[in-house]
Design brief:
single chain, about 130 residues, mainly alpha, about 45% helix
Length: about 130
């Protein structure tokens, strides 16, 4: 049910963007549900990803803080945001996100629509809205 809602929201966002009308992407309504469903099990306190990197998606503040090494989101620029490179699998496969317990299993990866929602949100300033 949640996956269907996320897919529908992504398709609606895509339709607005391709029609030349850029829908305002909401952190709470659009981005946070994706992160909660697909990333929080590893990237929240107590998770393996959190232990390795210090990166938590538990809140807007922790997401914007980034990892123990650096910020991962540059508001207004998805091209400069490490998070986007990781979820688009443009980085070394050992750090591509989300991790699959079976290497190369694409069903574990974010969908194109989910990536587009996160990318649009970052390009719109990564607001806490």
């Amino acid at each position: 049910m949640v996956t269907m809602k996320l897919a529908t929201a992504g398709l609606i966002s895509l339709a607005f963007m391709s029609a030349g009308c850029e829908k305002q992407v909401s952190f709470r309504g659009d981005v946070q549900p994706i992160l909660a469903e697909r990333c929080a099990s590893c990237h929240s306190p107590g998770g393996m990803g959190y232990a390795a990197s210090g990166f938590s998606v538990a809140s807007y503040e922790s997401l914007m803080k980034g990892t123990k090494y650096a910020e991962v989101i540059v508001p207004g620029s998805s091209l400069d945001s490490t998070l986007v490179r990781l979820i688009q699998h443009q980085a070394d496969p050992s750090i591509a996100m989300p991790k699959s317990h079976q290497v190369g299993k694409p069903s574990e990866w974010l969908t194109r629509e989910q990536i587009q929602v996160i990318t649009a949100w970052i390009d719109q300033g990564a607001k806490n809205n």
